[in-house]
Write a structure and sequence with these properties.
Blueprint (H helix, E strand, L loop, with lengths): L2 E5 L7 H12 L3 E3 H10 L3 H11 L6 H12 L7 E5 L5 H12 L5 E8 L2 H9 L1 E4 L5 E3 L18 E2 L6 H15 L1 H8 L3 E5 L4 H14 L2
Parallel strand pairs: 1-3, 1-4, 2-3, 4-8
Antiparallel strand pairs: 5-6, 5-7
The chain binds adenosine-5'-diphosphate and adenosine monophosphate.
Length: about 220
């Protein structure tokens, strides 16, 4: 049975960090809508040009652009056994469309871990986040530092700070989360899919909690 997991949580909750680990353990892809947009920005595609202004402003990219991009990614054969979705869906409309996309192949979401962290902690996490240029591996100056400063442990590429990890943009992104994405908590709770996870624990403990949740559902 294919396993589609939606990781829900505010920016900086640890979705990308955890998705990478869990996806490897379950041998299914990690699909991050933010990474897909950043890949398009790097390659200067039309999609990237359309998304850039929204991302720089800390706003959501419009639903129609985002949904078609993720639908295309989910249509690839490496998703036949499932996927870990990180950063998508982010609006009730995206959530509704995701249900339809999965149902087309007879699939459903198996669980929605909601990684909870306070806004104050999120600001510290995001201002200290360093991301690898080659593949988006995630570090933190204090909480998860690389062995050599500025260098990715995994692929040796250089680390950079994301343009949208500036204080003003982070504040905007957190406001957008509370306004536009938080309604998904109730949406998935009603469907009995939501599992609350304490995201303030150290990375390994969050992983343990998530793996317990993900492996306990069919
Ligand atoms: P998201 O994908 O939800 O935006 P990330 O996985 O990029 O979040 O994590 C945001 C920042 O917080 C990164 O710098 C990451 O290293 C750090 N981080 C992730 N999980 C934890 C944790 N449990 N405790 C402390 N810092 C964390
Ligand atoms: P993330 O990497 O998840 O922090 O996302 C970075 C930025 O990409 C967001 O601030 C949005 O501008 C855009 N983005 C990522 N995922 C979505 C989504 N599901 N819907 C709309 N915009 C998104």
């Amino acid at each position: 049975m294919a396993k589609f997991v939606v990781l829900l949580g505010p920016p900086g909750a640890g979705k990308g960090t955890q998705a990478e680990i869990i996806a490897e353990k379950l041998a299914i892809p990690h699909i991050s809508s933010g990474d897909l947009f950043r890949e398009n920005l790097k390659n200067e595609t039309e999609l990237g040009k359309k998304a850039k202004g929204f991302m720089d402003a800390g706003k959501l990219v419009p639903d129609e652009i985002t949904i078609s991009m993720v639908a295309e990614r989910l249509s690839r054969t490496d998703c036949n056994q499932g996927a870990i979705l990180d950063g998508f869906p982010r609006t009730p409309y995206q959530a509704h469309e995701l249900d339809i996309i999965l149902a087309e192949k007879g699939n459903t979401i198996c669980c929605v871990p909601y990684i909870m962290v306070s806004d104050q902690d999120l600001l510290e996490r995001l201002t200290g986040r360093w991301t690898c240029k080659a593949a988006g591996h995630i570090y933190h100056a204090k909480f998860n530092p690389p062995k050599d400063p500025g260098i990715c442990d995994i692929d040796g590429s250089s680390l950079y700070q994301r343009d949208d990890d500036k204080k003003e943009t982070i504040e905007k992104r957190l406001a957008v989360f509370h306004e536009q994405t938080a309604p998904l908590i109730a949406y998935y709770r009603e469907k009995n899919l939501l599992v609350e996870v304490d995201g303030t624990q150290p990375i390994e403990q969050v992983t343990t909690a998530l793996l317990k949740t993900v492996t306990s559902v069919a």
